[in-house]
Predict the structure.
Amino acid sequence: MEIKVDEISKIIRQQIEGYDKQTDLAEVGTVISVGDGIARIYGLDKAMAGELLALPHDVMGMVLNLEEDNVGAVLLGEAALIKEGDQVRRTRRIMQVPAGEAMLGRVVDPLGNPLDGKGPIQASATMNLERIAPGVVQRQPVKEPLQTGLKTIDSMTPIGRGQRELIIGDRQTGKTAIALDTIINQKHLDVISIYVAIGQKQSTIAQVVKTLEDHDAMRKTIVVAAAASSPAPMQYLAPYGGAAIGEYFQFHGADGKEASKDNPGHHVLCIYDDLSKHAAAYREISLLLRRPPGREAYPGDVFYLHSRLLERASKLSDANGGGSLTALPIIETQAGDISAYIPTNVISITDGQIFLESDLFYAGVRPAMNVGLSVSRVGGNAQVKAMKQIAGTLRLSLAQFRELEAFAQFGSDLDKATQAQLNRGRKLVEVLKQGQYEPLPVTKQVLIIYAAANGFLDDLPVELLSQFEKDLYQHFDLNYSELLVQLGEKAGLTDELKEGLKKGVGEVAAQFKATHGVAG
Ligand SMILES: Nc1ncnc2c1ncn2[C@@H]1O[C@H](COP(=O)(O)OP(=O)(O)O)[C@@H](O)[C@H]1O
Ligand SMILES: [Mg+2]
């Protein structure tokens, strides 16, 4: 940096002049250098970290570095209009976003400004962008399921409301697809969704919004977007903005008043797509602020960046209204490397991960979840009981199947029992496949998994399975709707229900075999 003697001497002279009348000096500062969306400001001795600064031309700044003789701030807005020597005022406020019911169905930037051209938002409240996560006493353990509507996930890595579950995988493995299906599945449930798009192409974000609109899910969703073209500070702020908008619903009842024992808070689902790009934006800012680079050139506090975001996922105690905020962060890996810096960080912060694999994806197993490497540590407590009973051995069966399958590649002389096990495994893998935008209620998931795990599909050829699945759901909708309701209830699979299932599924199987001429 070039040292300008007259500027420095001017600052020193000002300092001496103001030596005994320190009135307002600390509240107004001067830009001493600006570039790349970063400004160094002299004279804001009392500024707080994270404080909002007011600059000319309606540009705002946010304090990130507090140094001995200046503060480093990122600029939000038209940074190019700011010049050296411009005056900067403290606002004594930290960053806030508008919040409230009026946000539903809207697409906004990380500061809550509308991006969808549908006019201004009449927000009823404002929330601090950064907020200390609810403490232990304010919480309670996760106890309700957050249904994704995806058979693979709801059966084997169930997610609870208030949990943090990571979706991780290479590009083009269906990460965003899982997130969107989960949002679509909430449209008849009491969950408000927030989709935070960080560093994505504008066209991709537009596509997401359109998909949600087409499936009538946008009315209960808020999209917070900081596209790849927006400045790094905006991308950095995006997930905090999304969390803050979500927290409004979590902490407030339907009447807009503070949630309490008699005024339940809402359930919120927050998707951060994706935190790899978020970390990269933060790295960019940090390097521009000349913070020392650490591992993979990320600054030392990049772990804190994500932990303070994800700690905000919580299930509040009944006294606090029982609202919840579930976080589904997404991480994009390079060539399946989950041991890179950011992936390991986020894995260690979350309560489990859904690991998606390119190999599976291209082999047609979609969602491409690697069952062995995916876990969910708390959601099991919240899983629907019937599903828990039926899916208990699913993971193990699939693991055994994969082992056998690898082994079976070497020869064809397999005994009957092994062949039967392989056949069963193949059917299980097949019924766990699921197309996009077709989330299934959990009771129907129980039906098909029950049918596969209990051998009803053993005689059916793989290509007919999706037709069978349709027939099965239709048959139960028409003849056993009562049973379907009971499947979702607390009691789980009672003996009576098991009998009913066996009878119903048996009927469909017999009928199906007759119409399709399958022997057995
Ligand atoms: N279950 C699925 N069935 C069929 N196609 C899928 C499925 N999941 C994802 N896809 C398709 O795969 C592509 C990549 O998915 P996407 O969610 O964008 O991946 P990522 O977010 O991991 O990059 C998209 O074209 C999407 O439509
Ligand atoms: Mg994606």
In short: The first helix runs from residue 5 to 17. The first strand starts at residue 28 and ends at 35.
